[in-house]
């Protein structure tokens, strides 16, 4: 990702990304939106990424029991 200095949006829906991978995303300060539906990240990982990327919309997995509108 370091080779993409203008990267602003990243959709990782359905990927196998984990909290460990989010550590690398936190270094990409140009990001303005990251979506993480149907991934292996935890709510805590999402919150850490939100803290690291202030101003970036981080859309994480839904809370337990919430069914997404799309599958």
Short description:
The protein is of the alpha/beta class. The chain contains two helices and three strands. Strand 2, helix 2 (43-52) and strand 3 form a beta-alpha-beta unit.
Molecular structure report:
It is a single chain. The chain is an alpha/beta fold and 71 residues long. It has two helices and three strands; from the N terminus they run βαβαβ. Strands 1-2-3 form a three-stranded parallel sheet, with helices on one face. β1, α1 and β2 form a beta-alpha-beta unit. α1 packs parallel to α2. It starts with 8 loop residues before the first strand and ends in a 12-residue tail after the last strand.
Task: Write a concise keyword list for the protein shown above.
3 strands, alpha/beta, single chain, 3-stranded parallel beta sheet, globular, 71 residues
